[in-house]
Amino acid sequence: MSQPGQNYLNHEKGLWSWLTTLDHKRIGIMYMISVFTFFFIGGVFAMLMRLELFNPEPLFAAQTYNQMMTYHGAIMTFMVIIPGVPAFIGNFILPLLIGAKDVAFPRVNLLSWYCLMVGAAISFATLFFAGVDTGWTFYTPYSIQTNGTVLMVLGAFVMGFSSILTGLNFIVTIHKLRAPGMDFFKMPLMVWALYSTAIIQVLATPVLAITLLLLAAEKLMGVGIFDPALGGDPVMFQHFFWFYSHPAVYIMILPAMGIVSELITTFSKKTIFGYRAIAFSSIGIAAVSFFVWGHHMFVSGQSQLAAVIFSFITMLVGVPTAIKTFNWVATLYRGSIEFRSPMLYALGFLFLFTIGGVTGIMLAVIAADVHFHDTYFVVAHFHYVMVGGTLMAIMGGVYYWLPKMFGKMYNELGAQISFLFIFCGFNITFFPQFLLGSYGMPRRYHQYLPEFTSLNQISSVGSWTIGVGFLIGLGVIVHCIKWGPKAPKNPWGGKTLEWTTDSPPIHENFETTPVVTEGPYEYGK
Amino acid sequence: MSKHHHAHHFDSAEAEFEASKFGVWVFLCTEILMFGGLFVGYILYAGKYPEVFEAGSQFLDWKLGAINTAVLLLSSYTIAISIRNIQTGETKKAINNMIITLLCGFAFMGIKGYEYNHKFHLGLYPGKYFSYDAKAHHGDVKDTAPGDHNKPELMDNLPENIPMYFSFYFLMTGIHGTHVLIGMGLIFWCLMRTRRGDFSPDYYTGLEGAALFWHLVDLVWIYLFPLLYLV
Amino acid sequence: MSANEHHIMPMKTYNVVFITLLILTAFTVLIAQFDFGAMNTLIAMLVATVKATLVGMYFMHLKYEDKTYAVCLLSGVFFLIIMFAFIAVDVGSRVIETNTL
């Protein structure tokens, strides 16, 4: 029996107790601080890029811009969006969702955080030694010819282990540590999402590891595998790279969709529509995601036969996603909807992710992609899905579970204002980019033709708006943690297990192991 | 009676054992994909440049490769038996079998070291460090490929991108060798723990994990041997 | 303690498997004496797979364990094959299209 007022935050004191913790909740919070910090650094690079692109005349040297865009991409991909949901939110909430005391391998969990931090440090070190300017995709032969590649890919290699270890931990946790009575079809959809994500993390990331190793070997030894001058095939690099990096984008979106499922059902006070369909579609997306990577390579020199196969399967992968979207909307229908901030983000997700997803299908059409590839259309597409999708879901999840994490309520008005700035700012930034891409403005260029000026300026103004929005959001969160009013166990009337325990939870999560007798969203009729 | 206490978040030692085993299997899956990526690269480039790979493999002595295969198979056998020994309470036999496994590991690395040394002596380095002098070493390497595949004349007139073969060779055997060393380290740790009395028929999770890892190392070599030495 | 995980295989099984593995190794070396062209690689990989299956089923106890572990292993292999197959389709058809290696 724990003392009143005792929880995982005050269980032990001091920095050392945090750095050596085995508590998944503390590890989740450490990831939160890391991910937020990396997000702001990546965001600064984004601001600098949009500053450069405000006018057609360049502000920085071309190579400087190329470095900024590389670091923006690499930081956001490897240090924010991939760990963002699984390692930060997932680590905190997964054991609570399944009624467990911790994840299966707490020490491996801590190791995964150190892998992220060490990998990030190595990557950031390249900023001081030799700025990488290849784009986060490290295409050969340029990545072999330029400096900084080896160190940067070493950093990414180490960060990849963070992802693998998280995925490994979650798979075993979900299989082995569910509370009595919780069979697979009584698990919350967030758990299905984390499970599907973990499968991708475990299967795809090792291929990234070997790809990066081969790239480093190519640069250091001259293997001759990717360098055309030595008889190698640069398209082979792209195959190896995208075999991981396409499933990686589903690592980014699947857990976000899990959050959306939780938010929509809780804030509609209604059982989720089509639980099994959503559960199976998560697994389905994870599986099919491995068969479509060539759609990043339609203009690379890949054969027509391969291109057609990839194009076709890519269109199929839209189906399970659409199924989820229909089910979410059906959940909203005749629900008792509360427009609290988490719900605003979930609704924002529905709208923005749909735009992003549909433009993805447009890109799957080879003939269209030949025109759109390497233009701002693609940039807009992936920002709609990654920011309009995943980041929105992360923000929604943060506000949703913040009371559970810290035992404090955040300021609702502040959160809503932040949402407004982010949502409007996002659309102002990125919608014009669809138009710019259609008109032919190439991506990864530090300047552009004068006729693109007004749309670029609108986009840049949008970026400042988002910036303000996130700063307000940060303020709301920090204010909440330090001075927020005490939060109850269950501020939202949620039905999943985390709402049955204290806010913040005790070290062991639950006083007694919960026994599950019904499904996760029984709101009654 | 086991003096092992299972971790607080597991219901029982049994649950912890099963979870640990599962964790090791998931990890092995990641290793399959990592090594597998290398194999995919190897096979695709062997398909693209068959003459490079045929010439390169002349420098690999199949007899040494076969001995190493037998050595690893023996080591897999002995580590599997050592688990059985723990299960039946025959700790002394378990220790002996672990020692044999380690000796096999040393033998494997020893033969590997000999092969590497021989190649360095001939200037057969990976990639841009390749410096084989065909004239100076004519006839030095003999009877290394089996039967019909033995074509020593290929070594006199090597294709231009032959260094690629040796890049693959050193990368694949190097990464495999690193895993052999890690496996030996794990088994050595298990040996120490067994001597300390940590393991019993009720509890031997660490050994189970180390053995599974060691079997993976063997599995990779089962594929590596024919690919590099025989075809 | 359930009998399943701690099923103790008889020594005979281990011995038979080990001898079989050695025999298969000898076989694969023997076959390699002859030049069957591309078939050599195929046969070698097939024999290797048989050996790998034996190691997996008996030395790694997959025959007696929870099916989940075998599913784990096989999914890894499956996606590896996918990676190989799709890239091979591209490389193969590119050689035909562009007439270059």
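qc> The longest helix of chain C spans residues 67-98.
qc> done
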